[in-house]
Design brief:
The chain is α/β, with parallel strands linked by helices and 285 residues long. It is built from nine helices and 13 strands. The two termini are 20 Å apart.
């Protein structure tokens, strides 16, 4: 592993309270874990409380040998109550004003930004002003050559048009799923456009290198330059889909960083995501 090649997931780290037990989660944490499996220094940037759950977060991250910059703050460690339907699809009840809503910016984060070759962020951890300011300052501090993935990850009511607009203006790769696509179409008054046309519109409007659209069992498409690459979803025995999207993002990005083509990166992402769906609890297995 080359520890000079730092790939950052910044935002929420929390405990998913799953039916089968407590599982460390949060999209940035899942992303950083999977990136580390591809030989990069996946680094989690977040915050936990000065409590037992926070200590357990740090111990779990260290036990998996994942790098992190986790601040300890005067707010409780984040938790999410997760329920699964009969197809293994999760729904979430996210406790508000947790530690990851209050991530401070510090000199260590400024230094990390200068060493980062790729980063992933979403909307959820921008719901509170302190973490939103920290995430934005970090993203704005990244080198010009850095790959910046906006994995939109819409959850409940924890986003608005300003958060989405800022994020689209400050990323060069956008990833979204079919449900999030419908939400964005509504925001842009574009319900009449088909999926391909709308993704191409976003790509051109925000000068994005790549747009990734995942559709669950109906496959995924990657839009780049003037090309569209479609990959079917492999048929696997699904345990649950927690963390599948995060593993997709990590595998895709890691493959690009290794010099793979977009088509090769897409195929690797699809295979990795399918494997994640056969495991309990998503990332940390």
């Amino acid at each position: 592993m080359d520890y000079a090649l730092k790939v950052v997931g910044i935002g929420e780290v929390l405990w998913d309270m799953l039916p089968q037990g407590r599982q460390l989660g949060g999209a940035p944490a899942n992303f950083a874990y999977h990136v580390s499996q591809f030989g990069f220094q996946g680094t989690i940037v977040s915050a936990v409380g000065n409590d037992a759950l926070g200590n357990d977060v740090i111990n779990q991250i260290e036990s998996h040998r994942i790098a992190s910059q986790i601040s300890i703050v005067d707010y409780p460690t984040g938790i999410v109550d997760v329920t699964l339907d009969d197809k293994g699809i999760p729904s979430y009840k996210i406790v508000e004003n947790g530690a990851w809503d209050n991530i401070p910016f510090n000199d260590e984060l400024q230094t990390l930004a200068s060493q980062t070759i790729a980063a992933c962020f979403g909307t959820l951890a921008q719901r509170n002003i302190l973490s939103r300011k920290t995430i934005r300052r970090f993203i704005e501090s990244l080198p010009a050559t850095c790959l910046k993935v906006f994995d939109i990850n819409l959850r409940q009511h924890y986003y608005d048009s300003e958060i989405i607009e800022w994020s689209l203006l400050h990323c060069n790769i956008l990833k979204l799923n079919n449900e999030e696509l419908i939400e964005l179409k509504g925001m842009y008054d574009a319900m009449s456009l088909d999926d391909d046309a709308f993704c191409i519109k976003l790509q051109r409007l925000y000068n994005l290198k790549i747009v990734i659209l995942t559709r669950g069992e109906n496959g995924s498409s990657v839009y780049y330059e003037n090309e569209i690459n479609f990959e079917p979803t492999p048929t696997v025995e699904i345990v649950d889909t927690v963390g599948a999207g995060d593993s997709f993002t990590a595998a895709f990005l890691a493959s690009l960083l290794k010099g793979k083509t977009i088509i090769e990166a897409h195929r690797q992402a699809v295979e990795t995501s399918a494997l994640t769906c056969t495991k309990k609890g998503g990332a940390f297995f």
